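Protein modeling request. Please complete all fields; requests missing the sequence field cannot be processed.
Requester role: graduate student
Desired output: 3D structure, token encoding
Chains: 1
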Amino acid sequence: MVQTLYHKDILQNRAQIHLTRATLAPQRPKALHTHDFFELFWVQNGQVRHHLPDRTDTLDEGTVGFLQPGQHHALQGRGEHALIVSLCIHPDTIANLGKRHPDLQGHLFWSDAKIAQHQRDIRQLATLNHAAVLLERSACTALHAEAFLLPLCADLTGNIQPKDAPAWLAKACQTAKDPAVFREGAAGLVAITGKAHPHVSRSMRKYYGQTPSDFINDLRMTHAARVLITDSDPISEIARDVGIPNMSHFHKLFRNAYELTPLQYRHKYQRELVQPQG
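Delivered output (278 residues):
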């Protein structure tokens, strides 16, 4: 028999979110359960077996799961130190977020599937845990629930890769956002895949509609544009920092991307916003 959990039994007073930490028993669950609320959980320590109606997944430390109401599942510790953090979230909170932020549609709690998973590295997991501590100390109202959920949702949906892209390519494209990678150009992207350049090039065209060079140059120009309006570094230094010391080539790429020279961009989006000259 499947047990159903109800948010009215968990969320007290004005609370819209409830956080629980628990060490999972290593025994296989006797049955799956379901709930009428949205659940967010992450593996804080160790490994976890996630039992679903059609399969069992092994979740590593840092795995974050987003479950919709009605999803049948169960969690089981793998070993003696499997620690899980779980949040029960009122359906109204998720519905309101989805209405106000269309970019969330199709992702996370708003995915076509009833469950979505993402992976957090050590630094990202530390950030998530810090936010969880602040949530615990709050009244857990709708305001506090959104203060916790929105940064996480914005971060995860900002890194969405094409659905059909192979994991090795999606991971490489995400890693390539690091200046240490993109300043090495297309060769830097290819190197972190561990695969041959022709194969990477074909895969990039198929799944991203770009060559490796085009993809990297987009990252370079995005980074350059951000630095131009948040710092006062000389343009030549910014060009070198993104891996394009040839100023003529840098200006050409930047102008193609933003229809302004780097200096014009800085004036328009930094100086004229802070100290308009009239």
